[in-house]
Amino acid sequence: MGEFFMAQEWLNMLLVAGSTRNVGKTSFICQLLQRVRNHAPIAIKISPHFHAPTQALKVLSENEHYQLFEETNQDSTKDSSRYLQSGALRSFYIQVTDEFLPDAFMALLPFLTSTNPILIESAALHKHVAAGLFVFIYNQEATSKPATHANKQIADFIIQSDGKSFSIKPEQFNFNKTWTINQ
Asked: What is the pTM of this model?
């Protein structure tokens, strides 16, 4: 199952990971969503932590290993809701352990296109999907997650952040069937 989407390159996908919590991943994605809102972007938050879902999360697929939801509330402070507020056509939220991430992504495939910009916040999806761009947001002042060094080695771009400002600004990113950066 995993070989199918590993082989496919998602040029319209921008994958965002970060060195720690509160490094600005969601803020960065929200600014990008505002920038590409005319392209009907799709936003996805993938979390390895399981929480009780809110009523606004519409269950699309679930089993003992993962839960796939579509966010329907545009008025909360949850990341998936903030994506809708920022211009996402659709916002999805996945709770899954890294071991079952390929299965959860396969369940998401019917909701994705190869033409809309797709923005995904995930620390581990890069192991399974060839995204058009993989961006790693890093704060050298904060304690980093264990995977920071490995992610910095494979990221297309490393962005320094204090949680609010970014060394490569969201307005430098462009989307026209694929993601590019003006440097």
From this structure: 0.91
